[in-house]
Amino acid sequence: MRTIIILLLASLCCPALAPDRAEAHPHVYVDVSLTFRLDDAGLSGVHQSWLFDEMFTRAILSDLGLDAASLATPQGQAAVRDGAFQYLSNYHYFTLVEAGGERLPVRVEHFRAGLKGNRFVYDFDVPLDLPVDRLADFRMAVFDRDYYTDMIYAENGVRFDVQGGIAVSHAMRPARDQTYWRYIVPDAVHLSVSAIPGASPAVAEGETDEPGLLARFMGLVRSAQKALTARLDAFGVQLADDPWGPALWMFLGLSFVYGVVHAVGPGHGKAVVCSWFLSRPGSLMTGALMGNAITFVHMGSAVLAVGAAYLVFSTGMGGFAAASRAIQPAGYGLLALMGLFLLVKAVFDLRRGGLLAADACARAEPEGENLRSILAVSFVTGLIPCPGAAVILAFAIGLNILWTGLAALVVMALGMGLTTTLFAWFAVSARKAALTLSGRNRRLFNVLHAGLSLCGAAAICLLGTVLLVGSLTV
Predict the structure, then answer these.
(1) 263 and 366 belong to one structural domain
(2) C-alpha–C-alpha distance, residues 190 and 42, integer Å
(3) What does the sequence similarity comment in the record state about its family (predicted)?
(4) Which of 50, 358, 437, 462 has minimal CB crowding within 10 Å?
(5) CA 326 to CA 230: how far, in whole Å?
(6) Which residues of the chain have pLDDT under 70?
(7) Over the range 382-411, which residues count as b (16 or more CB within 10 Å of their CB) and which as e?
(8) C-beta of residue 359 within 8 angstroms of C-beta of residue 275
(9) How far is it, in rounded angstroms, from Cα 474 to Cα 144?
(10) In 3D, which of 173, 217, 175 has the Cα closest to residue 191?
(11) Are residues 402 and 352 in the same domain?
(12) d(CA 366, CA 416)
């Protein structure tokens, strides 16, 4: 029973240790609408309309130097198409199309950018030209596997433009084979089409089970982040007119809340702190230090990257994205090497009998050396610039409230640091509880202590390696 409790305590920290992509939090929110165009020949294509959140709208218009009037010009359309939209071809325009179990290539045409109220819109067509007999098991989904962008189907966002006597029905089903970040399951549109006039084709039965508790909770987190983004935009606009008005404190307060919520999702920072404090002795103080150091380095690197992109190279968000892609392999490689060093050290100590000695925990690393190690790991972990911070800075630059934007990043970092610190404290407590429970059995205690040290270091090394490979293959 005691062993089961110990394993349970240790395993509770493990779900955060298996990310499959570098980014883990949405920074842009998009409402997606799909219009399926069918005639007697089959499915000619699908029109997509993407409605972006207000904060990203202001950020990208500022970055490209456009307003409503200049956006409508051929030059404005070319700036958006070549400077932003075309890059999505590397990700198949976030679109999955399958027919008869075969994934189809995605190409686009008739792209146009515009504004709907104060929100940016992409409109484009995905030509398919699929005859009716090829529409068996057809499905289509729109999602970003990297989770930089949260693609959500708009209310009544699936429509049909039907010409002729063809009949069609549809159903929304979870595409579980496309699950990313372990709990995010994109919805896919399934079609059933009949060329018989007056027919009522039925979509074949499929999975319709309800999402699990974690998926529902993270769905609430996603909705909260989207709502907070809209509120931050509204207060930011007020600050442009009255920099020291009541909106300032609401803007800063919501920035803190946004940071807390934003850090709840999966990410390599929490995975590192859990692995670190599972493998090494820690305290509430060192947990808070590491949790906040990671987030402040994460934010600070974004400020430096955005500053260089805007002030030195005049490349805007495009320059930030290029810098971030260049930094990622180096940062993740350093993380993997640091994990490898810790693993080799743990193996060396084990071979010398240090991890299994009676006074293994008593002979902990000196406090000064431990703090230096924590700060070094924190720097490497947070080195990758935060895209969310970049969006907020671009938004602030566009509204000419740069200093307010920088203050918001500091407050947001405190919020993210709080969440990361709580994960660190949980790992510290789990390790102490596991070792305390096994204290009366010296052999079990020694084996568990050695196992946590080895597994924690190996987890950091594996995490850095996985992220490194992912950054090189995107």
Answers:
(1) yes
(2) 15
(3) Belongs to the NiCoT transporter (TC 2.A.52) family.
(4) 358
(5) 31
(6) 1-25, 181-182, 197-212, 266, 311-326, 352-369, 438-446, 448-449, 471, 473-474
(7) bbbbbbbbbbbbbbbbbbebeebbbbbbbb
(8) no
(9) 13
(10) 173
(11) yes
(12) 28
- Let me know if residue 208 belongs to a domain: no
Are 174 and 276 found together in one domain? Answer: no
Q: Exposure pattern of 233-264 as b/e (b: 16+ CB <10 Å)?
A: bbbbbbbeeeeeeebbebbbebbbbbbbbbbb
Hey, is 217 helix, strand or coil? helix
DSSP state of 177: G
- What are 19-44's pLDDT values in tens digits? 545 445 678 899 999 999 999 889 99
Residue 95, helix vs strand vs coil: strand
Nearest by Cα to 402 from 311, 322, 295, 294: 311
| Residue from 123, 150, 132, 138 nearest 189 by CA | 138
What are the residues whose beta carbons fall under 8 Å from the beta carbon of 358, sequence distance 6 or more? 442, 446
Alpha carbons 354 and 344: distance in angstroms, whole number: 13
Does the residue 362 lie in any domain? yes
Q: How far apart are CA 48 and CA 461, in angstroms?
A: 41
Query: How long is the chain?
Result: 474
- As a whole number of Å, the CA-based R_g of the chain is 25
In this structure, the answer to whether residues 15 and 91 fall within a common structural domain is no
- How many domains does the chain fold into? 2
Query: What contacts 147, CB < 8 A, 6 or more positions away?
Result: 21, 23, 24, 25, 26, 180, 181, 184, 265
Q: Measured between alpha carbons, how far is 136 from 423 in angstroms, rounded to an integer?
A: 47
How confident is the model at residue 158, as a pLDDT? 95
End-to-end CA distance of the chain: 45
Contact 135, 38 (CB under 8 A): no
With tokens 């500091």, the residue in question is: 410
DSSP state for residue 211 in the 8-state scheme: P
Please state, in angstroms and rounded to a whole number, the distance separating the CA atoms of residues 365 and 431: 16
Whole-angstrom distance, CA of residue 235 vs CA of residue 251: 6
CA 14 – CA 304 distance, rounded (Å) = 33
Answer whether residue 59 is part of any domain.
yes
Residue 103: domain span: 28-194
pLDDT digits (tens, 9 = 90+) for 420-433: 999 999 988 888 88
